Amino acid sequence: MGWFPLTTVSGGAAQPGEQFGGGDGFAIGRDAPAEAVDFVKFLVTSNVANKAGASGAILPVKKGSESSVTDPNMKTVLDTRSKSSFVQLYLDQAYAPAVGAAVNDAVQQLFAGKASPEEVSKKIANAAKAG
Predict the structure, then answer these.
(1) Dist. CA 126–CA 120, nearest whole Å
(2) Taking 80 as the threshold, does the pLDDT of residue 87 lie above it?
(3) Are 46 and 113 in contact (CB under 8 A)?
(4) Helix, strand, coil percentages, rounded to 5, for the chain
(5) For residue 7, which phi and psi values (nearest 5 degrees)?
(6) Which pTM does this prediction carry?
(7) Closest residue by Cα to residue 63 from 49, 73, 51
(8) CB-based burial of residue 113 (10 Å sphere; 0-12 exposed, 13-18 middle, 19+ buried)?
(9) 3 state SS of 20
């Protein structure tokens, strides 16, 4: 098994060095109770980030935790991400839940051969406009 970046598409808007994906991270609302803020502060400590990276399940985003990642494939992704000029969070995570659900449903239809890329794009755009 391995990992490699996709090639650029002639005429595409993306630039080499840009990424689409994610990593370890947490968000809470501005009106969250102090306990939620304290919990997130705990989740982003070096100790927790190092344990997460060592698990091989996720890529930690805390600076200084890079050496905890030992899986060769995950290290390649982490090294590439660290050199990226831009990283777009997964769309189902970056937008409101209704838009995220539309992304997931539309992509599933694409993979099943029940929707074209154009139809998927339209469904996602419509959900974003409504949401």
Answers:
(1) 10
(2) yes
(3) no
(4) 50, 5, 45
(5) -75, 160
(6) 0.63
(7) 49
(8) exposed
(9) strand
CB atoms within 10 A of CB 128: 15
Mapped onto helix, strand or coil, the DSSP state of residue 110 is: helix
Residue pair 48/65 in contact by the 8 Å Cβ criterion: no
The two structure tokens encoding residue 131:
């949401």
Evaluate whether 71 touches 3 at the Cβ level (below 8 Å): no
Sorting pLDDT into bands at 50, 70 and 90, what band is 101? very high
Rounded CA separation 129/74 (Å): 35
The number of residues in the chain equals 131
Look at residues 35, 40, 38, 37 and name the one whose alpha carbon lies nearest to residue 24: 40
Read off the pLDDT of residues 16-72 as tens digits, 9 standing for 90 and up: 888 887 766 677 888 999 999 999 999 889 999 899 889 888 888 888 888 999 988
Residue found by looking up tokens 């935790």 in the block: 65
> Cα 99–106–93 angle (5° rounding)?
35
